[in-house]
Amino acid sequence: MHRGLPWIHGVCWVVALGLLASSASIDTAAAKPEPTPFESAHPALRSSLQRIAAGSRLWRDAMGLLDGTGRRAVLVTPDQVRVQDRGEGGRRRGFDPGVVAEVAPVPTEDSRVQEVLVVVNLPLLQRAYHERPNASYDEWTRDLDRIVIHEVYGHAVPYLVAGSLSGRCPDPMPGQAAEDACAIRRENAVREELGLGRRLDAGLAGLALIGRDSSARWGQRLH
What we know:
By secondary structure, this protein is α/β, with parallel strands linked by helices. The chain has 5 helices and 7 strands, in the order ββααβββββααα. The strands form 2 sheets. It has a 4-stranded mixed sheet with strand order 2-3-7-6, covered by helices on one side. Strand 4 and strand 5 form a beta hairpin. The termini are close together.
């Protein structure tokens, strides 16, 4: 998410606007992408995208705005991502296993944005599900959909509609009420359509499963 709500990014991931001292790339051994503005090779992420599109007019409208532009959000899992730390001699490392999700626009040399990379930490969500005997599969899918909504509709879509880094839609700034932040306002609008509750804070409390895990956190590097 933002610097308080950690969420995702896109293919051939490059760092956003020098806000981070790192860049990323995804492994290329993925299945062929689908011809849609929101894509994923992972079946759980594809299912989430389909559920959200089926229930949200706002989501479908955003897809309509992007149809034909060639701009897209690509949803991936942590195993498809490598982060390169420029400040450490270009050392590559894996995605932080404690981060729920992160987003990074992939700007061209002239700062145009055709692609946004969204990394969703499915292993973290799956572990939270399996570690709770009383957790339901419905809780798992609803948490996943909340995460995808925040990262894609809250962060990625504004970049893609603008087609540039000027589309940045941030999480709450210090001292700002969570519900007043750009990304959370957008997230809550889609949540309302889907009956997923309103997000009232900048943390993980709104997630049924991961919200109980104090070691998990939102991403802070990519947007």
